[in-house]
Amino acid sequence: MTAQIIDGKAFAATVRAQVKEQVAHLIADHGITPGLAVVLVGEDPASQVYVRSKGKMTTEVGMASFEHKLDVDTSEAELLALIETLNNDPAVHGILVQLPLPGHMNSDLVINAINPAKDADGFHISNVGLLGTGQKSMVPCTPLGCLMMLRDHHGSLSGMNAVVLGRSNIVGKPMAQLLLGDSCTVTIAHSRTKDLAAVVRGADIVVAAVGRPQMVPGDWIKPGATVIDVGINRIDKPEGGTRLVGDVDFDSCAAVAGAITPVPGGVGPMTIACLLANTLTACCRANGLQEPEGLTA
Amino acid sequence: MGDHRLLNGKAVRVRILNEVKAYVDSLRGGPIGRLVSISIGDNPEVAVYVRNQARGAAAAGLRFDQQLWGNEITQEECKRLITEMNDDPDVLGIILQRPVPDHIHVRSLQSAIHPLKDVEGMNPASIGNIVYSDVALAPCTAAASVELIKETGLNLKGLEVVMIGHSEIVGKPAAMMLMAEGATVTVCHHMTRSVAMHSRRADVVIVAVGKAHLIGPEMIKPGAAVIDIGINQIVAPDGSARIVGDVATDEVLDIAGWITPVPGGVGPVTVATLMRNATVAHERQLAVGWIS
Questions:
Q1: Interface predicted TM-score (ipTM)
Q2: Locate the Tetrahydrofolate dehydrogenase/cyclohydrolase catalytic domain: which residues (chain A) (predicted)?
């Protein structure tokens, strides 16, 4: 059999369209424009690209975008003062501090200075704990995107066996919590796991987030399983040059799986779409309005 | 307690409480604040927990302040009193007993307890730290389970652990703690299709469901360790009541490598981990300069 390809690019566009529609309602019915503030410290080229595209998409869905670009030698105290201002600014519903921060700053301290209710990335320690205990929280964007794709493909995930490969704080752990929240039986496997192949073979859903190119071969996949590939790795092509691959070996896995996300064009595009969804959610909560359906955990 | 397969919670409790006492003694009379236990409204079950904790504190050499707040106290008043305790250097840690009356929002009060005084590990930020693998100040029952697994001498790295039950105060934090220690953790619950399929593969099975004798020997791999967190009261045909766990202990004993008895397994260790959390809170308050 050949797996259905889950088109993340198209699905992300659908999510952004939903966000756009909700934003239009908020503006028309309540006079509220959701706002996302993005803070970039320094001139890391990759970060600049992200911040630019976040800003562009924020305006495209009708939200207000506030970009704050700070010099690389900005002091931590100045950054914390800016965050405090944004925390208190009623026009700002979501705050994102682009990581990595320069070496002289303590990222944990900075992230935890964000008002948890405005924490669009879901990295504040209280949000981590709220998600970890199944309470309402702001949810990290990448795992939220994976969850939306899985729900879209399967409807209910209840009772399915899910294996999350990788236990990172930004993907693996929150992914496991979200899948538990949707009543999957969840195994978190990682570099210490003894028989990875056997563990993965038991899974109806595999989420790979280990950062190792093409680590998961097709013969680890249960026939018909859904494979979500979070990895983005650049490898050399035999004929020269490089290309992007995921954490799963796409061709062999696609031959066995029921559905699979490609790299690129799978999980990647969902991340910014979920950032916008999170900002919308934060805005609705801040104004005591009903949360947007289908756009939250 | 002759059977070496039974993990003796009472002995672990004594060991931990002695460690805490040694810590307190090492301060040589230097100041260490008191633990405050808050019960809201009169509840005989809660009173049993509080008595147990008071005994544990006494054994560890810690002062224990039992407060009983009236049933009619408001949420705002509770919050105000907790905030005062956060600022009071003589309060080492705050324990909020549950259940609370219906008009009290317990989560909001748990969030009001400062993480450095949160000896029960219930503030979302405390749970966040557990998720991020900083596990020194963990919810007591989860910490007690991990302690008893370590008591077997099994190396947690690469160990297959199946957690049955995903409650917020036991299952989820225990799963995160064990993952931080390098175990491969699977969390099962009432929607799991076949719990046995998972549990039979496991080197360690932890059960926290609250159903008497849910887990039989057919669900356990020979030689595995079984940690039973359940506390269920059952009534025998003759009308006598007794406490049993979630595991059919006698039957599982024939196949398991280790098992925690109920009572006498996880329960006694829980209070001891609360006292150990108090020493962690003390160290952290010292480290940030709250106290000297």
A1: 0.93
A2: 6-121
